[in-house]
């Protein structure tokens, strides 16, 4: 919708637009909130610009600026700005240029280390988990062996025990 509005405002004027400039019709306002940093340059006419708050400085500082041809205004990504042609009878023209991304890119050699490091980290986590499960299984096996050995010993003692006399005359029963 914004591009449709910009196209309509550029086409309806007796004043020719400078090459590469956007037209801001007289009496019209436009809101800008770029996702990335950029520079607004006034090509022709005067522009009244108002930044979104909060504003610092004296109480009458509301973030308003009047820009003349050739003036440049820098915006950060996500920063809001409302612009309007200063002259109620004449349009103003401006251009918008993106600024290069200031975030440094990782050197190719450092970037090549990222994936193997992530793989090693995952392997260590899996190895620690496997070691813990193995220790638990060995502990359970040892417990079963010790408990089974005790049972076998008791059973062996009971099997090898001399028979008890059950009758008074000494006969076995």
Written overview of the protein:
With 173 residues, this protein is an alpha+beta fold. It folds into two domains: 2-98, Jelly Rolls (Sandwich), CATH 2.60.120.10; 104-161. Helix content is 36%, strand content 23%. The chain has two helices and eight strands. It has helices at 2-11, 108-160, and strands at residues 22-24, 29-32, 38-44, 47-51, 64-67, 72-75, 81-85, 92-98. The strands form two sheets. The protein has a four-stranded antiparallel sheet. The longest helix is centred in the last third of the chain and has 53 residues, at 108-160. Mean pLDDT is 78; it is low at 1-13.
Salient structural properties:
173 residues, 2 helices, alpha+beta, disordered N terminus, Jelly Rolls, four-stranded antiparallel beta sheet, 36% helix
CATH architecture of the largest domain, by name, is Sandwich
Average of per-residue pLDDT values:
78
Helix content: 25-40%
Percentage of β-strand residues: 15-25%
| Total beta-strand segments | 8
Give the CATH class of the largest domain.
Mainly Beta
Query: What is the CATH fold-level name of the largest domain?
Result: Jelly Rolls
Q: Could you give the order of the helices and strands?
A: HEEEEEEEEH
Count of domain modules: 2
Regions with little confidence, pLDDT below 50 for 5+ residues: 1-13
Given the helix and strand composition, which structural class is it? alpha+beta
Instruction: Note the overall shape.
Output: rod-shaped
């Amino acid at each position: 919708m914004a591009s449709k509005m910009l196209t309509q405002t550029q086409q309806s004027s007796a004043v020719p637009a400078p090459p590469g400039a956007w037209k801001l019709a007289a009496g019209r306002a436009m809101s800008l909130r770029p996702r990335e940093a950029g520079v607004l340059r006034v090509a022709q006419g005067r522009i009244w610009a108002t930044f979104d708050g909060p504003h610092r400085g004296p109480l009458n500082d509301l973030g308003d600026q009047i820009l003349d041809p050739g003036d440049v205004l820098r915006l950060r990504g996500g920063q809001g700005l409302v612009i309007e042609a200063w002259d109620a009878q004449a349009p103003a023209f401006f251009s918008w240029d993106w600024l290069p991304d200031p975030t440094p890119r990782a050197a190719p050699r450092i970037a090549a280390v990222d994936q193997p490091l992530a793989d090693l980290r995952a392997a260590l986590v899996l190895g620690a988990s496997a070691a813990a499960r193995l220790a638990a299984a060995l502990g359970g096996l040892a417990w079963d062996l010790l408990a089974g050995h005790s049972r076998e010993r008791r059973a062996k003692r009971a099997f090898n025990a001399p028979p008890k006399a059950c009758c008074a005359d000494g006969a076995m029963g």
